[in-house]
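Folds vary. Our protein:
___
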Amino acid sequence: MTYSEHLRAVMKLSLPLVAGHLAQMGIGFTDTLMIGRYGVPELAALTLSASFFHVWFLFGSGFAFALMPMVATYGAKGDDTNIRRATRMALWLSLCYFLLILPTFIFAKPLLLAIGQTQETATLSQTYLRIAGFGLLPGLGVMVLKNYLAGLEYTGVVLVITVLAVFANVGVNYALIFGNWGFPEMGIAGAAVASLVVQILSMGLVVIYALKILPHHQLFVRFWKADSEMLRRVFGMGWPIGLTMLAEVGLFAAAAVLMGWLGTVQLAAHGVAIMLASATFVIQLGIANAATVRAGNALGRGDADHLMRGAQVVVFVMAIGVALSVFAFVVYPEPLMSQFLDADDPARDQILEVGRVLLMMAALFQLVDAIQVIHLGLLRGLHDTQVPMVVAAISYWGVGMPAAYVFGFVLGMSGQGIWLGLALGLATSAAVLSYRFWTRGAQMVAQEGASH
């Protein structure tokens, strides 16, 4: 393929994935907005519950993300049998994971009280999690089937289903949180029911689409039949991905704790800056997902030239995305942050002053984070997950977090120092992962080609 053909393929894959990630963020945004209008205790409980759910969900999504490169590789070989086997076993593993984790949702209150949450917040959180926790199963199922479809380059449906989920979430929240349209007023329990309903609806839609568009894969025929060999393959790919995501989520959670030590103004500015950085990061995440599919496709074909040309194009597209976000953060920090602040808030000017500095740091942060996530995606496409997991964990927690503490507190650089430490950790990961890919990627593909 020529560079222009690679560019068209990457854009066709990544644009729906980027939009789908943004739409997924919209679900969390609407939950927060609507519960925030219901009550402050409920908002605090939802924030805590959503974080609790999100951590377990991300860890369990490792099996789904492992499926994407596996399906891309098998698809390039025309191996429908292994596509079916891998998808089934990813669903099996997601079910087993759900059954293992479910008790933590049912008995969340003692866990939350043990980590210092108030009685009211813990009680409301348990109310939410005892309902929404059951949504973990369809939620993981949706992730598996979305990655199955994305691995075969059916990305448009991922966007459509996610957008429909956003609208459904708003409607059910409106009915059940506030008691509109003749429904009972359920408060935070209504938000939990809405989450569960939306997860089940999304699962139903993606199953119907998969069966209709790809009936020859027969995903659910003799679904109960065990496949220990493929189960081991998917598990071996998936658990390092889950731990890698957990390590990164944990890094940012710990950074928020450090910012809280500096005071409410610093923490509020950090929250707004992270929200803006996250919104632009999902662009890179969508491109990284496309990189995973393209790399998996090259691996299946045993075509090293295809891999390296595609990787160069992905890095080029990533650079454009980073340049746009850096420009926005450097040139328009105040207008961007003002969207999240009350004009009458007495601390508004202080938050903007701190946030302006943090967004400058976010410009550097965006660059190194984009480089590391793109190369994580490329290596994942080559079925290389265990070494990147170790690299990421050491970079985040062996370099990033200690550096954040030293810069922020020992050297007295406050919030700017904490963000500089995070950027240093991500830069370490970016440097090692990019070196690994550009020096070993072609060799990995050649070895795969030689084995067939």
